[in-house]
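User: Can you write out an input/output pair for a complex, sequences first and structure second?

Assistant: Here is one pair. Inputs:
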Amino acid sequence: MSQKQEEENPAEETGEEKQDTQEKEGILPERAEEAKLKAKYPSLGQKPGGSDFLMKRLQKGVWDTLNWSVLLGVDKMQKYFDSGDYNMAKAKMKNKQLPSAGPDKNLVTGDHIPTPQDLPQRKSSLVTSKLAG
Amino acid sequence: MAGAGGGGCPAGGNDLQWCFSQVKGAIDEDVAEADIISTVEFNYSGDLLATGDKGGRVVIFQREQENKSRPHSRGEYNVYSTFQSHEPEFDYLKSLEIEEKINKIRWLPQQNAAHFLLSTNDKTIKLWKISERDKRAEGYNLKDEDGRLRDPFRITALRVPILKPMDLMVEASPRRIFANAHTYHINSISVNSDHETYLSADDLRINLWHLEITDRSFNIVDIKPVNMEELTEVITAAEFHPHQCNVFVYSSSKGTVRLCDMRSSALCDRHSKFFEEPEDPSSRSFFSEIISSISDVKFSHSGRYMMTRDYLSVKVWDLNMESRPVETHQVHEYLRSKLCSLYENDCIFDKFECCWSGSDSAIMTGSYNNFFRMFDRNTRRDVTLEASRENSKPRASLKPRKVCTGGKRKKDEISVDSLDFNKKILHTAWHPAENIIAVAATNNLYIFQDKVN
């Protein structure tokens, strides 16, 4: 008798477990992806204040010396002359020797005085669209 | 504008066999940034098809009259006019580069021989007039045929200039420039059914303009918080109702749509209707809000429904029911298990558009790998098609494509990991009356139509 009960119970439990797993599988893909992301970027989502994405969206095209680290990746940002950077660099230059080799062209930060060669060229020529060709 | 069932239009997108018609653009592998198409729009009759690109250029195609000697081929679209609409600018005060990319083109209903359209970049909207010139005046008194001024003292007789026919010339000229009204980036423009006003929407504000007046616009929606740290959502798209000139909607990055009535107050910060689908709190994740952000909102031609596009689905809403959509169509649900990498490569922020067929019986939206999806609302069937050069023989039927999500991949199926996420179809347009669609695949424009019986 007790044996029968034991046999029955495992079956019930398996049934419940199955349902549980199925429910979990429904939300699992998104949660699993979230876990992956948090593993790669532990500091994500911990900034106080307005959402990072919204700020990035609103500031598209703006170089903000204070907040650039908030935005995703320096190389994704448009770069142009920033007087804040320039003045910071000038102040620093007074205290140390001029750097011999310029840093990576893409990383224009406060340590380096920007020169015209460092800045990306403004878009120029107005050519007819190839759709019209 | 075509109402429901415009003249003999077959029902739905799936009982039809879609065929390749034309492709425009270069074939080279190296795509210049400027050539990337950023907007596609048919005019009210469908005879004109406009495209805008990242280089600030507009190309307009015109449908040729049907050829009696080739009854099986419908009119083709050929270049009608092309012009530089916007140029790159620099805001020196804010250290802001203003891209020349054309975000949206919207046609005005035709009122005379000329055609008018609105084109906008991030900051400035322009009204363009496209007109034809097929006559030229000859026999001027004060200048020669080549334009040089004649010496007035040598003129001994007067003549009346006569008009002579010339080769058709299509000219585009900017008639109005609506500038300096947007602090943030313009994402939408929409012409009102009164044909006198239009709205422009940026991330935080919506302005109402009169087509004749460029130095003033009315702010009708302002969601900018006093303290920017409290910013929680932005406006993603806005559109006027097709028939009710006092009604418009705007969508948000939080997946909601607000319908506003301009009769209720001058500033429409308080909505008349609020459309939001309740979310299951247990399924919430880091990605939930990002993928719920609505990238496009479009009224049906009937004005009874509207459609919203978020990252993974399109939803059809009945304007009379705010609590949930009446239809939800999955575009590429298999991407749900790829959200981490889609976030890392920024694809999760891609803004897909959607469109209705002329009779509202079908809807279409784009996906990755140059796939686009069509949903027939009547038969409830959907199909995945591909815009590719391989399927570009004239009148070749498009074969339905299938993405395999796991397990055994059947022949002709493509696995999720093989999808090319750089080949995204963000912009599509459907002819207002016939089953002809325009699909922008990066720098190429594909035109497909249904098989003629």
